[in-house]
């Protein structure tokens, strides 16, 4: 775990991220808050590309909780069978949809606690939905962010909760909205797990990681 970077270094890092891509976006396809929460829930232990492929047709015919219930468990299962843990995820989608219809008038709630009460929705999923749909500066820490945060010292922590707090505590407020997307994309395409692409990294001179592949 790298030492926590200072304010000025972190500000320079995010200034570079912003200059390279001012408004980064998540890569999961969705059309509304409901399809977003379903897509994020399905993405656990699966790739965004795999989820997008599976949900393309699903969301064309079931983009509301009621339409998903009308499709039924077997229909949902058939559409997402290429995704890992698809049977349990299909059950969660149906349970989630029923709760949204029964308790929320078919609308997706926009508090973290309410979102986390839905089947298959954890804190990370809730934070993604709050950030991407309602523009709340919530930080969804996945394996990419955990790796980048600890490797670079941007937001080190022993677990995902500690990394989330480090992001909120140390990244300047004007970069909070897009912080987790910049970090995810950096970890997914540049600061990869086994052989980080340090030669192509725009913050390599600010990063304390010693085993740089230059």
Task: Explain what you see.
This protein has 214 residues and is mostly helical. Helix content is 57%, strand content 0%. The protein has helices at residues 7-20, 33-42, 48-61, 65-79, 86-104, 112-116, 123-132, 143-152, 160-170, 176-189. Helix 4 (65-79) packs antiparallel against helix 5 and helix 8 (143-152) crosses helix 10 (176-189).
**Structural class by SSE content:** mainly alpha
Element order: H for helix, E for strand: HHHHHHHHHH
C-alpha geometry: elongated
SS field, number of helical segments: 10
Strand content: under 5%
Which ranges are low-confidence, i.e. pLDDT below 50, for 5 or more consecutive residues?
none
Distance between the termini: 21 Å
How many β-strand runs? 0
Overall pLDDT score: 96
How does the major sheet shape up?
none
How much helicity do the residues have? 55-70%
CA gyration radius, whole angstroms: 18 Å
